[in-house]
Amino acid sequence: MSTKTTIDRLCEHVGQSVTLQGWVHKTRSSGKIAFVIVRDGTGLCQCVIEKNEHTEPFFETATHLSQETALEIAGTVRADERAVGGHELDTIGLAVIHAAQDYPITPKPHGIDFLLKQRHLWFRSERQYRILRIRHTLVNAIRSFFNDNGYILIDTPIFSPSAGEGTSTLFAVDYFGEPVYLAQTGQLYVEAACLAHRKVYCFGPTFRAEKSKTRRHLTEFWMVEPEIAYAYLDDVIGVAEDFICSVVQRVLSQHRADLVELGRDLAPLEAIRKPFCRLTYDEAVEILHGPKARELLEADLTQKNARIAELIAQIEQLTETQRTAKKKWQQEKAAQDIQAAREERAELEEQVANIPHHIELAANFQWGSDLGGSDETIISRLHDRPVFVTHYPKEVKAFYMRIDRTNPKRVENFDMLAPEGFGEVIGGSAREEDYDRLLERIREDGLPQEPYEWYLDLRRYGSVPHGGFGLGVERTLAWLCSLKHIRETIPYPRMMGKIYP
RNA sequence: UCCCCGAUAGCUCAAUCGGUAGAGCGAGCGGCUGUUAACCGCUAGGUUGUAGGUUCGAGUCCUACUCGGGGAGCCA
């Protein structure tokens, strides 16, 4: 029996015979030679089986291995540039552990609805494998940043007796006959803890019952929320800045190849460094009303329309090619190209249809309302680094945010917009530390005082300026990997109307 | 909750003016000495989302519903 090893360690065994335990990822055969690409959870390895080196039945078995069949395969390790990963196995023998039949996810494209129903199998696909490994690194980087900088982990409850910021967006649960809610933030709890430990953070799932069906929303997602005592708005923003730089560096240093394989342009990530851009809400509104926002979207419109025209011409030409091509494979190639062009065109047309609406939303933006998704996209695309937007009108923000003492219509909050149009990934603020002001805000929002007595206690006993923020893990990962949709960033996405598997 | 788009083979998609539902992938069989979504030939595979309507005739037109995608609002 040869040494058992894993694909990531093949370089240590060149010239030796080893055994891999894995699954059949793909196969190809050509009469006298067969290639079995084996996946073992650490990488991919091409196993070569030459007919004249084996018995007829063995070769027969090897050429009929079906996708995702579990197997042990033994062979001699050889370095070869033609193989994925740089090493291949000159196969000596193999044992089928479980023969898989009719694996649903084929090497051809699939629709998102189908893939989400196959999420439990989709993990095995190369792209999903990479994304979830980057997620692992991101989560680790987040934990390391706080652990290495003196923050204490405080786990906050998932059952909440009261609504954090209003009841409309929460999931109600029956708790021994009492209605309680799934937590939409751990913030209030972590505020209490920062007065004990100075610097704390919580990291867990949060739940929002918003009926949003967009590429940026999940009903269950992971959020990390640091909270710091004796901190003002600028201190908290500074932490957010260091934090983002730290996790971006970590992901970049450990996953260059993965990011490139995912089609991520590394340059914008490499450009992430302090200081980030800072805008007040008023300045952001000015940008939206100004010529730059309009010019950006109009340029977008022209560019996209030009591309659509290009695609239409291309489709026509391809249709002609398809009709006149003599070889069958040429016709099929043309058919595939047509399909790809049609898809791109459909997506662009949808975007183009939305642009006038986005122009209008920006131009008619009312001072006092919250920035919309398209507005955030505009602001973030007009800057090449993350942007902090600060000092929103208090009416659109939560009761616990600190009133700006120099301008009481504003609160000392900030949102961080990721670059390249990815939009909000962080929301944070200084917290109102003054008892009377806080109570007034609770009353203004029409909230009952009784459930917040414990929270008010924090302002009765040794209240200090403090603040923190929340970062959405999935949105951050979508930005880092440059993914169109957030649903690929979490193992089991929970969305409106989707809860399988 | 509102607006736009869609639903055809296990999967991804075609089907011109309303006129006999077709490809590729996957599956099965055969061929090919190094393939990278390999390639080539053959075989099997269909209640066109559901319920009505218009018509000599509906995948195609109309109405309602169901499910999905994108966007708005809301948000991380």
Question: How would you characterize the overall build of this protein?
Answer:
With 501 residues, the chain is α+β, with helices and mostly antiparallel strands. The chain has three domains: 3-98, OB fold (Dihydrolipoamide Acetyltransferase, E2P) (Beta Barrel); 118-276 and 385-489, Bira Bifunctional Protein, Domain 2 (BirA Bifunctional Protein, domain 2, 2-Layer Sandwich); 293-362. The chain is 40% helix and 23% strand. The chain has 15 helices and 17 strands. It has helices spanning 56-63, 112-117, 119-122, 126-148, 187-197, 233-254, 256-261, 266-270, 281-289, 291-324, 328-363, 373-381, 435-444, 453-460, 473-481; strands spanning 3-4, 17-29, 33-39, 44-50, 70-79, 87-98, 152-153, 159-160, 172-175, 178-182, 199-207, 220-229, 277-280, 387-390, 413-418, 423-431, 466-472. Strands 7-11-12-17-16-15-14-13 form an eight-stranded mixed β-sheet. The chain has a five-stranded mixed β-barrel with strand order 2-3-4-6-5. A hairpin with a 4-residue loop joins strand 15 (413-418) and strand 16 (423-431). The two termini are 39 Å apart. The mean pLDDT is 89. The protein binds one RNA strand of 76 nucleotides through strand 2, strand 3, strand 4, helix 2 and strand 12.
Percent helix among the residues?
25-40%
CATH architecture of the largest domain: 2-Layer Sandwich
Percentage of residues in DSSP E strands: 15-25%
**Full CATH superfamily name of the largest domain:** Bira Bifunctional Protein, Domain 2
The N- to C-terminal Cα distance equals: 39 Å
Overall pLDDT metric? 89
The largest beta-sheet arranges its strands as: 7-11-12-17-16-15-14-13
Please state the structural category. Answer: alpha+beta
Q: Shape, please?
A: globular
| Subunit arrangement of the protein | single chain
Radius of gyration: 27 Å
Main beta-sheet annotation: 8 strands, mixed
